[in-house]
């Protein structure tokens, strides 16, 4: 008599697992029917990367000196701002 409840539990568990497997399989089949899994991927289009134009021109020494002078003046103005208030 002690084996009968165990057999009933085992049988119920097996039926539950079978039912669960069937429901799971059916759910997967329905989802495959709704959304096909073999959709072609959109073709990848290369994104053009802008490149800076190559300039064969060299920077002249006078242009470089002017640029350095402008930078020095800017830095000087930043450290010693002229204020309108006394």
Strand pairing plus helix content: what structural class? Answer: mainly alpha
The proportion of residues forming helix, as a percent range, comes to: 55-70%
Q: What is the H/E string?
A: HH
Q: What is the rounded distance between the termini?
A: 107 Å
Shape: elongated
Number of helices: 2
Q: Which percent band covers the strand fraction?
A: under 5%
- The count of strands amounts to 0
Mean pLDDT: 77
For the sheet with most strands, the description reads: none
List segments where confidence is low: pLDDT < 50 over at least 5 consecutive residues. none
Q: Could you tell me the radius of gyration in angstroms? A: 40 Å
Please explain how this structure is put together.
With 86 residues, the protein is an all-alpha fold. It has helices at residues 3-34, 61-79.
Topology:
Blueprint: H1 3-34, H2 61-79
What key phrases describe this protein's structure?
86 residues, mainly alpha, 2 helices, 59% helix, 0% strand, elongated
Summary of the model, kept short:
The protein is mainly alpha-helical and 86 residues long. Helices cover 59% and strands 0% of the residues.
